[in-house]
Every structure is written in structure tokens, then in C-alpha cells.
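Lab manual, section 2.4: Encoding a predicted structure.

Procedure: take the sequence of the chain (156 residues), apply the prediction step described in section 2.3, and record the output as C-alpha cells. A sample record is shown.
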Amino acid sequence: MECVVLVAEGDFRTHASQREAVAGLLSGHFGHVVEIAHTESGAPFIPGFEGHISISHCGVAVAVAISTQPVGIDIEGHRYEKMRRIAHRFVPAETIDTDIDSATMLSATWCAKEAIYKFYHGEGVTSHVAVDFPGDKHNLTIEHTKNYTLAVACAR
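Recorded output:
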């Protein structure tokens, strides 16, 4: 199976609406209700499914990536001012001026790093995650829409 990305747009400001949307995306894809469990580190998985999933949500959209290989996904609504205030936490000082010079670039950097972090389950990640296009083990895709930015890291 290639990496499958499912997205639902709407008003997802509550955890209940986010869980319901994820359940709807997964049941629509698999054709039946799907149980989601979590590892000790919090990574989601589907019991009995040999593949991998990654889930992300924001106030305006919910996204799920499904693959037979490791996968990481992140989706963020446009919240440039908040991202800019905390950019120093996820952008190295030496690249902060270029990585945050526009809302599009900052959103892409934020989402890419989160997707890559999830792809590697945080293992071997210490401080700043390098954004490799592609990396040694992953391909990275970034999409911008009028409502959100989406990044997906899938195994090569």
C-alpha cells in the first residue's frame, strides 16, 4: 500500500469532534469501524493491522496517514502569530530569519518537523529536527490550502 492521506475539513475545535472525524475517516477507508489504540509513547495504531497510521488535527481539519511503512503527518491551521512567537523552540537560531520570513514558510517548517518527528516516533531526535527533502529514510510532501498546511513523511 502506498501512503494514503485522508483529510476532513470542518469545525474541529473540540476533542470529541476530532475523534469523531478520525473515526469517520478510518471507517470510510477500511469499510468498517476501526479501533484506535496507543503505544506507551502515545503513537496511535490499529490493533490487528500490520501497517502504520499517523493522526493530526487542528481547529479546521483532521488528517490521517495510513501506510504499510512508517509514516508521520501534521496539519496546522493558519496561526502565524503564535508560531512566530515560539519559533525559537523549533527553528535553529542560525536559520530562524529564513525559516520564518513568511507565514507559508513558517507553517511548512512547523508541519514538516512535526511530521518527521512522528515518522521517527521521536527516536534519535534530540533538539531541532532537520527538514530533509527527502531524507535518507523518508519522502516529505507539504501542501498549503487556504485553511491549513499539511505535511506527510512517508517511508521511501
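Check your result against the sample. Residues 99 and 109 are 7 Å apart (CA to CA).
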